[in-house]
Amino acid sequence: MADTLANVSNNIRSHENNVVNGKDAKKLNGTHHDVNPAAALAKVRHEFGEHGGVNMSIEASATFTVMDPDTLRRIFAGELGPENDYFVYSRHFNPTVLNLGRQMAALEGTEAAYCTASGMSAIAAVLLQLLSNGEHVVASSTLYGGTHSLLTHFFARTCNITTTFVEIADLEEVENAIVEGKTKVLYFESIANPSLKVANISELARIGHKKGVTVVVDNTFAPMVLSPARLGADVVVHSVSKFISGAADIIAGAVCGSANFVNSMMDAQQGAIMLMGPTMNPKVAFELSERIPHLGLRMKEHSNRALVFATRLKKLGLRVIYPGLEDHPQHELLKSIGNKDYGYGGVLSLDMGTVEKANKFMSYLQNYTQFGFMAVSLGYYETLMSCSGSSTSSEMNEEEQKLAGITPGLVRMSIGYIGTLEQKWSQLEKAVLKFINEKH
């Protein structure tokens, strides 16, 4: 089996141009504005069902049979594998999950991708693959709370892996924090949760590669909007549960990178995914593969409404944080590195001052005008809102939240697209005016 896995990079690459090959990936790095992720997705081989269905069949088997006894030996010896449709066990490889991986690789412009049971399992597996006992990470101070805890507490306790958190916009601070020979990973989010800071991916990748570290980017907030691998990132991770799923009904993750890296994660003796087993259910993979084709349409509408609402909320006097606004510190940066036509993302944040005001405002939005729901997560067709400091970033202490730019009254809003724009704006405006006109 070890030999079979050693050929995974070729296996994944050989599926009739299902993923971008290394040559094309290098070409894309310099021409990201000319590359439309939707066009890349359209080139992925369309899998048909076994009886000619326009949708592929779901391969729901945990284990696979062979017609000849010697075939199983040859599979485990690495002589046969997924490249010629020989499968042994779904924790190893599953045809339905592999198809979703090809779509994710095309979406991100990488050689290969592997899909996992959750976003956190993807992040943890990538970092454990890249890091050994006693090594070091440089990471953005503004991260999803679960990722921050993984780096701050869990890895330090279990693996003696330490992390230095930096202001990711300060390139000099980032470079100085990298300890040559000890630092192995530079980790950040393309658009940060929930501060919406935009990372200068190209420059950060340049610094990381100059220092000999692997650059890992969480692109959960910006699928279609940004393509980190085309800007120089080595590995791109996703919580597929969010925008890519789009229905708030699935937990899933993905790792996108070089075929060699995906191969290493599936190694029978050293592979973090293979050995820890965060396996995606093929039924989930099928569901997601049917949603990715319209991700581009959804992201355009998420982004369009977020920009309209952010602009109008600012005119009403609220403190709005959104990269699409010209006063956002990284507005021009995102404009220069983003993929054309996909806007500035579907999430905006409002600083309401205090947690009490934030909670009252969200209550008005949900219970008075029915604009959205008080719930964590994002990418849903309805608007979802939460007070980050007391929810998705609550793993961070007060000082860590302050360094991350998370104020007590910060409300993160994932803007949905249900209903008409003006219909939803009237609900949002009604709640805002009620809030403004009351004494606080």
TrEMBL record:
<dbReference type="InterPro" id="IPR015422">
    <property type="entry name" value="PyrdxlP-dep_Trfase_small"/>
</dbReference>
<dbReference type="GO" id="GO:0016846">
    <property type="term" value="F:carbon-sulfur lyase activity"/>
</dbReference>
<feature type="compositionally biased region" description="Polar residues">
    <location>
        <begin position="1"/>
        <end position="20"/>
    </location>
</feature>
<feature type="modified residue" description="N6-(pyridoxal phosphate)lysine">
    <location>
        <position position="242"/>
    </location>
</feature>
<dbReference type="Pfam" id="PF01053">
    <property type="entry name" value="Cys_Met_Meta_PP"/>
</dbReference>
<comment type="similarity">
    <text>Belongs to the trans-sulfuration enzymes family.</text>
</comment>
<feature type="compositionally biased region" description="Basic and acidic residues">
    <location>
        <begin position="23"/>
        <end position="32"/>
    </location>
</feature>
<keyword id="KW-0663">Pyridoxal phosphate</keyword>
<dbReference type="GO" id="GO:0019346">
    <property type="term" value="P:transsulfuration"/>
</dbReference>
<dbReference type="InterPro" id="IPR015421">
    <property type="entry name" value="PyrdxlP-dep_Trfase_major"/>
</dbReference>
<dbReference type="GO" id="GO:0005737">
    <property type="term" value="C:cytoplasm"/>
</dbReference>
<protein>
    <recommendedName>
        <fullName>Methionine gamma-lyase</fullName>
    </recommendedName>
</protein>
<dbReference type="GO" id="GO:0030170">
    <property type="term" value="F:pyridoxal phosphate binding"/>
</dbReference>
<dbReference type="InterPro" id="IPR000277">
    <property type="entry name" value="Cys/Met-Metab_PyrdxlP-dep_enz"/>
</dbReference>
<feature type="region of interest" description="Disordered">
    <location>
        <begin position="1"/>
        <end position="32"/>
    </location>
</feature>
<dbReference type="InterPro" id="IPR015424">
    <property type="entry name" value="PyrdxlP-dep_Trfase"/>
</dbReference>
